[in-house]
Amino acid sequence: MADEDDSRATEYTVLAAGQAFRHELEIKRSRFITVLRRAENEDEARALVSELRREFHDARHHCSAFVLGPDRLIQRSSDDGEPSRTAGIPMLEAIIKRETSAGNADLSDVSAVVVRYFGGILLGAGGLVRAYSESVSTALELAPLVRRRRLRLCAVRVEHAAAGRLENDLRSAGYVMAGTDYEARSAVLRLALPDESDSVAEAASRLAALSAGTAELMPEGTEWVDLPLS
User: Do the beta carbons of residue 112 and residue 35 sit within 8 Å?
Assistant: First the structure.
């Protein structure tokens, strides 16, 4: 029987951690400055808007959109004075529809702000939609992305003498090792497995075979880990 957590997303695409990414477009003399930053929650996402309002205090608009969570359930946008649905929604759709190299449209944990300096030429509703959508889409094409995967950590307690051989056997079998702790009476090996019940069951079976049934896999919770895009 599958775990109830198996229905949740176990991996998705995010911006690489670190500094915000910036890109600027000029369209009919208007400047569209796009700033992207990774955000773990709504407070972090909204903080980017506040920071850019202070930095670009003389700009007319600071439009924004953000998508949060492995399942992308939190989605917000703001036109910030532009005509209704001409800025925030196009920005939001650019995030939602962004596909990775693997063809997945699963980008999340991203806050996007487009700062606009009006250039004196009216773009019209259609022009604004295209401009804000293109601003975010272009920035996302250039921004560094990574895969974020939820891994299940499991521990194996063995005698000191058996730890080295078992760790090598597990590595040779393709398992990701997450460290070894040597305690007074035993050693604790840790594996990082895909957060799926079948993967854990397969690892437990392989461990039993490698240790002649003397070692047991003990779940220790889950952890989100950044991995390069394949």
Answer: yes
